[in-house]
Specification:
CATH superfamily: P-loop containing nucleotide triphosphate hydrolases
Bound molecules: BIS(adenosine)-5'-pentaphosphate
Distance between the termini: 15 Å
Order of helices and strands: EHEHHHEHEHEEHHEH
Number of helices: 9
CATH class: Alpha Beta
Largest sheet: 5 strands, parallel
CATH topology: Rossmann fold
Number of strands: 7
Strand order of the largest sheet: 2-3-1-4-7
């Protein structure tokens, strides 16, 4: 199954992608994670992306389209995948179509902007393995320490309130039009993001099984 997860920054795309990935045994491809890895490694692409990520803007289309094209050519994608954070603009969606990728379902996780601000401010991530936690909703076993690699958890730089406001503005302007794009193709399924990960997961899994 080839799935796209849409939603505002902090709506819970990554959380749901990880759960579906285990459930369906298909990989998750998160452009945000790939870009953050490139940033950490100091690669040329990472250097270029830094100013965009830090200011809450989107990385240019040609860069992310190149990332996706390369990643989808890898053997683990042949039986399906979950795209988390791609496409984010109409030109990115059109590029995916041109690559001949036929998406089975687009899950749009809807969460109000004020709830997003709260969720994102409580998020803490592991700089080592990238695992994501939350001060209220997803606590690590030991406060401030990653369960997997025992690194000290940190707040993402783009999770500062001012940058979150800019990310939301960019989302409404450039990414939200994708809902109409995929609704017109009869692929869109809307899930109301609940205040509990398990409740959202139930709705997401039902959306994957439902007839459109
Ligand atoms: P990216 O990493 O994709 O960030 P994002 O879309 O802003 O999404 P987030 O990772 O912030 O949130 P999420 O929806 O995955 O939520 P999560 O599950 O973590 O991109 C970062 C940047 O990279 C972009 O700003 C851009 O610059 C660049 N970029 C990436 N892709 C690009 C592209 N295609 N084109 C151009 N530029 C691109 O959940 C958030 C928090 O809430 C967590 O702490 C979680 O534990 C908690 N939570 C989750 N679900 C629930 C729930 N149901 N109830 C309560 N809490 C919950």
């Amino acid at each position: 199954m080839k799935i796209i997860i849409l939603g505002a920054p902090g709506a819970g795309k990554g959380t749901q992608a990880e759960i579906i990935s285990k459930h369906l045994q298909i990989p998750t491809i998160s452009t945000g994670n790939i870009i953050r890895e490139a940033l950490k490694s100091g690669s040329e692409m990472g250097q270029k992306a830094k100013e965009y990520i830090d200011s809450g803007r989107l990385v240019p289309d040609d860069v992310v389209i190149g990332i996706i094209q390369e990643r989808l050519a890898e053997p683990d994608c042949k039986d399906g995948f979950i795209l988390d954070g791609f496409p984010r603009t109409i030109p990115q969606a059109e590029a995916l179509d041109r690559m001949g990728v036929v998406i089975d379902r687009v899950i749009d996780i809807e969460v109000d902007d004020d709830v997003i601000a709260r969720r994102v401010s409580g998020r803490r991530v592991c700089p080592g393995c990238g695992a994501s936690y939350h001060l209220e909703y997803k606590l690590p076993e030991v406060e401030g320490v990653c369960d997997n690699c025992k690194d000290t958890l940190v707040q993402r730089k783009d999770d500062q309130p001012e940058t979150v406001r800019e990310r939301l503005r960019v989302y409404h302007e450039q990414t939200e039009p994708l809902k109409d794009y995929y609704a017109a193709k009869n692929k869109l399924f809307v899930v109301e993001g609940q205040e509990d990960v398990a409740d959202t997961t139930r709705l997401t899994l039902a959306a994957l099984e439902a007839n459109l």
